[in-house]
Design brief:
With 406 residues, the chain is α+β, with helices and mostly antiparallel strands. 30% of the residues lie in helices and 22% in strands.
Length: 406
């Protein structure tokens, strides 16, 4: 078969491929291009710009470029601030590891862990899921609720905020006297006063309030649940602190007002005497006789009830509240503060601004692993607040004890 017969039997595509092969041999000489017999121009592959190459990638052995798609639109959530910190969400994350929607709480807990370990006696790390320090902006709100619920705060105690762990507080153990010294250039010697000062050591102690939270409520973790958690924490801490300020024994807890040395106290006869107006007036006179001062009363609701029922010799009630204004929480013109945690046979008269409460730091949260809670589908939480208590002037207090309770 001659060349002419072969040419007529080839298809047009085959002829084009053959022409390219012939032209490629011609280009081996180094020329950038050459013409085929039918007038087509062929360029060297390495002289063709990359963007116009018409070579099949599969034949050329080249990797096809990766196809890229535009990233989906992301709508960022507004950045949360610490003011929106949720204690309930942080507790939920500690227990279940579920931090969805609680990224702020997760990062805060990681950066501000509480390494104190507590169960009932605050001594076993194995009984904890972990703990965290509550942000100060959140803790301040809880502390405000504590102050609203604790009677010593309400009575006007002096509060030292952000107190150091340990410091000495100056106290006044007796009343002072003033003297006239005249206008001479060199006045005579000033008569020595019998005023005596002392110092009392204040050392912050941990007050722990325990709260039990239902599992379903904790999983909800909404604003209402957060409010309940804060209220319960504040109430438990307030009750624990108020009881210690009243009759704490010292050591791991503050030394309370009833056990403070040097306070004047009057005890009725062994059979117990009912409260009378004379007893109340005598307490006032005793403090006034020491050049002291007073601002209110502190007692159990039982004694308040008995005072309300005091009668004249004609069996008329002494305290008759206005029909329109109602009863005022006052005795002899001064406010009274009552709590069921106080002894029901005692009444205290004093200047409660001389009670000093030292606060250190904020609130810590500890999440318990106590099995008894799990059986009831509940979780135990401990809130820790560091405080101490002291009296600056004992002369401004007087106590009536062993009163009848009915």
């Amino acid at each position: 078969m001659d060349q002419e017969q072969l040419t007529t039997e080839l298809t047009e595509e085959q002829l084009d491929a053959l022409a390219v092969q012939v032209a490629s041999k011609l280009l081996d000489s180094g020329a950038d291009s050459a013409e085929t017999e039918d007038g087509k121009t062929v360029q060297r592959a390495d002289s063709i710009p990359a963007q116009v190459k018409a070579v099949d990638p599969a034949q050329a052995g080249e990797k096809q470029p990766e196809q890229k798609f535009a990233a989906p639109a992301v709508h960022p959530q507004p950045e949360r601030k610490l003011e929106s910190f949720s204690i309930a969400a942080a507790i939920r994350g500690k227990i279940y590891g579920d931090w969805r929607g609680a990224e702020l709480e997760r990062e805060w807990c990681r950066a501000n862990p509480s390494y104190g370990v507590e169960k009932a006696t605050l001594d076993s790390a194995d009984d904890l899921y972990g703990g965290f320090l509550v942000p100060s902006v959140t803790a301040s709100g809880i502390i405000s609720m504590v102050k609203a619920k604790a009677q010593f705060y309400a009575a006007g105690a002096t509060v030292i905020q952000n107190a150091p762990y340990h410091f000495m507080l100056n106290t006044q153990e007796s009343a002072s006297s003033g003297y006239w010294i005249g206008m001479e250039a060199q006045p005579g010697a000033i008569t020595a006063s019998d005023l005596t000062f002392g110092q009392v050591e204040m050392r912050l102690r941990r007050c722990a309030g325990r709260v039990v939270i239902d599992e379903d409520l904790l999983r909800a973790s909404n604003e209402a649940v957060e409010s309940l958690v804060r209220q319960d924490l504040a109430e438990q801490i307030a009750l624990a602190e108020d009881a210690a300020f009243y009759d704490g024994t010292g050591g791991t807890q503050p030394l309370g007002l009833l056990n403070w040395p040097g306070i004047s106290s009057y005890t009725t006869d062994n059979s117990g005497s009912k409260i009378t107006g004379d007893l109340l007036l005598t307490r006032k006179a005793n403090i006034e006789g020491r050049n002291g001062d007073y601002s209110g009363w502190m007692t159990h609701p039982t004694q308040i009830d008995l005072i309300r029922k005091l009668k004249t010799g004609d069996s008329e009630y002494i305290l008759i509240p206005s029909f329109w204004e109602g009863e005022k929480k006052m005795i002899l013109g001064m406010n009274y503060y009552a709590s069921t945690q106080y002894d029901n046979d005692k009444i205290i008269l004093g200047n409660f601004s001389d009670c000093v409460i030292a606060e250190g730091g904020g609130i810590e949260i500890r999440v318990l692993k106590d099995g008894s809670y799990g059986e009831k589908l509940q979780h135990g939480i401990i809130g820790v607040h560091r405080v101490d208590f002291a009296l600056r002037r004992t002369v401004n207090f007087d106590i009536i004890s062993n009163l009848a309770t009915s």
